[in-house]
Amino acid sequence: MIPLRPLVLIACILLSSGATARGDETPAETSLSESTGSALGDAIPSSEELEAQGAVIGRVAVRVGDVFDTRIEGENGWFYRTANGLHIETRPSVIREQLLFHTGDLFSQRLLTENERILRQNPFLYDAVIVPVGYDGSAVDLEVRTRDVWTLRPGFNFGRAGGANRLSLKLVEKNLLGYGKEVHAEWRDTVDRTSLIFGYNDPHFLHPFTRLSLAYADSSDGQTKAVALEQPFYSLETRRSGGLQLFDNSRDEPRYVLGENVGEFGYHEEYYEIRYGRSQGLQQGHAARWSAGITYDRNRFAELPDTPLGGPLPDDRELLYPWLGFEWLEDKFQERRNQDQIGRTEDVLLGLRASGRVGLALQSAGSDRNAMIFSGYMQRGLDLRPGHSVFWNLAASGRLEDGGLANGIFNAGSRYYWQTTPRSKFYAGIDAVLTENLDPEHQLLLGGDSGLRGYPLRYLAGTSRALLTLEQRYYSNWYPFRLFHVGAAAFCDIGRTWGRDVTGFENTELLKDVGLGLRLGSSRSSFGNVIHIDLAFPLDGDQSIDSVQILVETKAGF
Length: 558
What we know:
Elements: H1 4-19, H2 32-35, H3 47-52, E1 56-65, H4 78-86, H5 92-96, H6 109-120, E2 125-135, E3 139-148, E4 152-161, E5 164-173, E6 182-189, E7 194-202, E8 211-219, E9 222-231, E10 240-257, E11 260-283, E12 286-302, E13 317-330, E14 333-336, E15 346-349, E16 352-361, E17 371-385, E18 388-401, E19 404-421, E20 424-436, E21 444-446, E22 460-462, E23 464-475, E24 484-498, E25 511-522, E26 530-538, E27 549-555
Parallel strand pairs: 1-3
Antiparallel strand pairs: 2-3, 4-5, 5-6, 6-7, 7-8, 8-9, 9-10, 10-11, 11-12, 12-13, 13-16, 14-15, 16-17, 17-18, 18-19, 19-20, 20-23, 21-22, 23-24, 24-25, 25-26, 26-27
């Protein structure tokens, strides 16, 4: 392992120094405001002028773009025409039912901008813009322009992290017949189990923004059944929300030490919830939302024949409790490119989002104990100065019972971005977790599958952990076959755990790794936005650790 370290460190320095050289921005996709319609005329006033004049919305046209635009050079070959021919375009009615405005409503640029964010959340759309295309002095005509991505995914998938492989055979369609519905069938083989999985998701079941999700998995160690029906607070102006969730899962839960399975136990989890929420909509730049519900949460545990536990068998737990929740969301979003994606429009929250809920379980009402169940979350983004942004988040959850805290989990994290050149960015992220009286069925782990890329998966365990990630990111202008935006990263991970784990393991060492990675940002597919191919080199640990870890993963971000 020693001879590799100088080479890796030199490569990191070269990539970092190369990234500070002068460069142009990563070429974006052809703008939807330019590629699929006429340019805006001088006769159309600005958004501010339209709002000041009290303009109303006139005709609303929807224009859905195919996966490839065969009118532009580089996308007019037989391959691209064939791909478009095989692809079923999203039906305009699917886009229309997600619009927050109608003919006759007052024109509002804020509402149009929020609607673009909502449309971009659809996995079958690459981007969405809404632009004025005509104005007669009182009514402004709008055009909603979207571009599809490839949503059918048959075949074989392979991933590797922490020295363990993941294999799957799947058939997934995320935009069935152009109606925006997802069907999923998959055979999956992971380090924990082999599963046959079926799923269905309808984001507009019988009514716009009413979501229905169904899932079933038959695994080598149990079964999973899940049903969810909800209408969320999909917009800042949404006044009501509600839903129900049914979840039943049985599995063999493993315990790990230094990447090795040291025990297992049977785990049966049942979780049922019904909820309802109200809001006054957007007021003074923010939305405040109240919600209430009832939750039933039962957990059962059992020893497995001829299998060591690796620690104590958890006690059964049954909680039935009403709860009250609150959420605060500021309307401070910004459109960016090349932050956590490559070549995609990203909607970044630069304001405050906070939520929390508190429930009360009583033995007299059907629970097996008296307990207060709480959870809370807060995130905030700030621009420190041009090219420098920081984001932080806090989360806490647990139960107050028997005069103390049980299963207390406290998480704090921060992400820093420095735009060093138009083609490069320095990233630093830190994440810390503290626990108190963690339920024995849970392990707080750290390894190749959780950010410490140079080490085996689930390598370290403890009652608290911290991880620092440093990356110099580079965004090239290479766009092979107009399918992937190509990027690269030189990285360093530093992390450790503290405290005695449920297995009796206690770590005393700070672990570090360095590495190089290739990033492929998918601009034509809905299946994972960034493909990671990493070579990571551990700088600590014993001789049992491989001198190089190869990781191949599909992630939501860079």
